[in-house]
């Protein structure tokens, strides 16, 4: 049989092929734009026919979608079509309906599959079944509860906070070396120190003190930065995996040694994976041999979960309310996700609080006075008392508002029979999303200055202020809401109160290194929130005149 090229005019077969492909894509574009169930939803033409605009802004431009969406909403309205089958909302009143109504709106599997990686491990973050998520989350909730956090405040949080403050003090408050007869001002790398602190907290808390990574003990704190950069590199790939799932499968075929060679930042990530994998194996053997741990870790909760209250095994089968015993790969993946999510997000928010306090003499002075008035001695400081301080609470809420851990869109699926938002009906099966970043900058809740760091906005001075603050609280979603909110919320809040409270009780003359600007602390959406690539790192020194 003659090849197709012989049946076409000489030299023009490629033209016919190109026309055929163009025709095919034109048909798809016309159908998606004008004959799709979402064709009535406002939005830019290219966004309505392809997922490529999201890939461009989050993949190629590295996380800029969260900054583009407010501009599109300003043009097209509160209901915006951002992909062939995804709609984004800007009206805060809809957030609870989508994210706080139990399991009514399930997670979009196409979006979250990238978090499972090439192994497709059904980690807690991506579990689709409401029953399975309820049981697995229920097994871990007590481990990360406020009660558990308070019980370990002295042994983990306070000791790590003291170590962090000790590093600051030994660097900035010891005698300075002389360079050419002049005292050289010393600079402390607070950026990497608070990330090392966050890593040590989450690994001590989740893995047990004997398995803490002890990043704060390292002579060079850049090891923590290497770990965070490796996590960032992994998440940069998410938009590509979401748009082209086959890439994720192909990525899984690459051996670790080649991955490190092609993508050097992956080295620290792969090393950490091996550490977690070895811990899973060791803990499982200990459980099988009947070894009782000094304190149950996240590995014990996942490998050998305790039954939930009043739900025992029936006829040799596990109750659906009893956590399932998970495979090593799922235990491994859940533990890795806890580490990655709990490290840089908290460290980044602490950094934002430190920067904003030091940058404003007024905020610095008010916070110092509140802390010193309540705690005459350093030993008096404790978490419960810190949480009652109104100005410190305002500082922390502002840091969370302007630096949420998950700033971008988090798609859910509209259930049957569909839903209506701002008078626009949407069919079942539509992917629907909202963003913490837009919620936290809502002009109705936060006024004409939503980008300004203002702790006073959380302190009521009149009845009108109380109503305004209630509105602000409804728009505050740094940890999400509902049954799938952040598992480690209580631990993250404890870290924030402990670090910010202790640092500013102890040190009253810190300044930011020259050249650092607020833009360096901006956020980009790589699922987790990160600072822009190339941003200056937060470093502090003592005020001029102190050496």
UniProtKB/TrEMBL annotation:
Gene3D superfamilies from the UniProt entry: Cytochrome P450 (1.10.630.10)
Binding site for heme: 486
Species annotation: Sordaria brevicollis
Any one GO MF annotation of this record: oxidoreductase activity, acting on paired donors, with incorporation or reduction of molecular oxygen
Example GO BP: antibiotic biosynthetic process
Name of this protein: Cytochrome P450
Residue runs in coiled coils: none
Cofactor(s) of this protein: heme
